[in-house]
Amino acid sequence: MVSLLLFGIFALLLLINLPIALAIIFATLVTMLMTIDGLPALTTIAQRLSTGIDSFALLAIPYFILSGYLMGQGGIAHRLIAFAKVLVGRLPGGLAFVNVISCALFGSISGSAVASTSAIGGFMIPAMKKEGYDRPFSTAVTVTAATTGMLIPPSNILIIYSLASGGVSIAALFIAGYLPGILVTLLLIAAAYLYVKKQDIKPLQAETIEPFWPSFFGAIPSLLLIVLIIGGIIGGFFTPTEAGAVAVLYSLALSLLMYKELTVKDLYPILLKSVNTTAIVMLLIGASSAMSWLMSYESVPQSISETLLNLSDNPLMILLIINLTLLLIGTFMDMTPAVLIFTPIFLPVAESLGISPLHFGIMMILNLSIGLCTPPVGSVLFVGCSIGKVNISEIIRPILPLYGAMILALILVSAFPAISEFLPRLLGLI
């Protein structure tokens, strides 16, 4: 009854368009007042909001947010696009492949799907329109490919999952995201190729593609950030939090001194946006922690786990139910609260099925990434439609094959744990 009351109030508040963080706080507060006698609800909510963000690991998030904004405006996106054009631009449908690869590369550096959509989509959608691609398809490619940054490190949401799961190694999660992220990228390229094959679109002309070596050397400093961050964490040179600070310093040096596409005057609005985004993320984390505490206090995760395990003796059927539930959750809830609220519910069930917390985390993030580009709440979808100047109704048809590619990736990652666990095991992280 507590879970029905809690989620019922939460759903009602979302329907009246209350911001999700406030909806979580009010739903938790009302449920506490109605079900727990003698508990000082306001004091408890305040304590949980505070302790929910009292974590050293979370200090990495504002650093990576700031570095993502610096990269988005520091000329890195254009150089990655030029490099992707050299790699695949001459293939049939090459500009669509350039879009996917550019989003994957930029997402892996910035760790933000929204930043990737803005930085890559702002350049690639008009470029694809000029080459004969329709705007809805170009936008669909951008918003789906941008979500690969949630899997390919450094990724803020993987840090949050580490917190929610009780301490799964951030380094292991970062490494585990590579193969699933690459798999999603390749399947999106395949889906884009099948779509483009039906259109009369010619490959890019050689004169529109920069020479290989200038493009390669132009992209190397940006790509070295991945080596610096991941290599430093795995090698034990610095913690993930310290890696975030290193990412900021490297991005500053790259944008201000090497590429010279940012000036000191540009830093104030970037810092302001970073503070604003960090405040939103931290409020979501604190609010979700309060809701998670209430569910634990009322043994909601244990009740849901027992119910799921009693539904079927078939592990595949339970895994299917979990995946379908997460897909549904992703369509109306942002990733941060979804991870914090539902990890304590579904992780014990997954572990009882023999699924490692590492594998489940990657599966969960991939699941919720699909929700980022799915109505009604998909933040990346709305940003992409705004940049592409298209309506959501126009994008539905071209995005369906791309959804299919992402769901196929989810099925493969869910069915074969080695896709997530091979690299961490190879490096001795698990």
Mean pLDDT: 86
How many structural domains?
1
N→C terminal distance: 39 Å
Major sheet description: none
Low-confidence blocks of residues: none
Strand composition percent: under 5%
Helix residue percentage: over 70%
The count of helical stretches stands at 21
Structural class, by secondary structure, is: mainly alpha
Brief account:
By secondary structure, the protein is mainly alpha-helical. The chain has helices at residues 2-15, 20-35, 41-52, 60-73, 76-88, 94-110, 113-130, 135-146, 156-164, 170-176, 178-197, 212-234, 240-258, 264-297, 300-311, 315-332, 335-352, 357-372, 379-388, 392-415, 418-426. It has one domain (2-426).
Question: How are the secondary structure elements laid out?
Answer:
Layout: H1 2-15, H2 20-35, H3 41-52, H4 60-73, H5 76-88, H6 94-110, H7 113-130, H8 135-146, H9 156-164, H10 170-176, H11 178-197, H12 212-234, H13 240-258, H14 264-297, H15 300-311, H16 315-332, H17 335-352, H18 357-372, H19 379-388, H20 392-415, H21 418-426
Describe this entry's structure for a reader.
- The structure is a single chain.
- With 430 residues, the protein is mainly alpha-helical.
- The protein has one domain (2-426).
- 78% of the residues lie in helices and 0% in strands.
- It has 21 helices and no strands.
- The chain has helices spanning 2-15, 20-35, 41-52, 60-73, 76-88, 94-110, 113-130, 135-146, 156-164, 170-176, 178-197, 212-234, 240-258, 264-297, 300-311, 315-332, 335-352, 357-372, 379-388, 392-415, 418-426.
- The mean pLDDT is 86.
